[in-house]
Amino acid sequence: MQTSDQRIAVILRKIEDGNAASLALKTFSRPLQLSARRLGSLFRSSTGKAFRSYVRDVRMARAQTLLADPSTSVKEVAAVLGYSVTSSFDRDFRRVFAITPHTFRQQLAALYGNTCGQSKPD
Asked: Residue 109 and residue 119: Cα distance in Å, rounded?
């Protein structure tokens, strides 16, 4: 049987690798035969962050990289990150960075010229 630290390490890898079909706490808690509440508590004590906050932070770090590719639309970036609704991605991005994904791309374009940040239409 795995220790709680080992279980959390497996979950962290799946979140960071994007190898989870669903990034909901229940998705991870069922196979471990833990309640979502108990797993959430273990997760927070191990990482110092709530599960949802950790997932959002990992997604937003990936979003910055993906948005730098001008051939990928914001809608495509949202889908790659597991958002089924683009407006949810926009909301999370604004909460973390205080700007929209579109504005982020404009700022990249201003900093680095036309080689990045010029998004294709959504």
From this structure: 9
Q: Tell me, what's the pLDDT at 85?
A: 92
- Tokens at residue 72, please? 């990928």
Q: In angstroms, rounded to a whole number, what is the distance separating the alpha carbons of residues 82 and 14?
A: 13
pLDDT of residue 4: 76
Closest CA to 116 of 73, 59, 67, 60: 67
**Does residue 104 have a pLDDT over 90?**
yes
Quote the pTM value.
0.81
Write the CATH number for 107: 1.10.10.60
Query: Amino acid letter at 41?
Result: S
Q: What is the mean pLDDT of residues 13-42?
A: 86
Q: How far apart are CA 34 and CA 76, in angstroms?
A: 34
43 and 59 inside one domain:
no
User: Beta-carbon neighbour count of residue 105 at 10 Å?
Assistant: 21
Instruction: Tell me the two tokens of residue 119.
Output: 């998004």
* Residue at 121 is within a domain: no
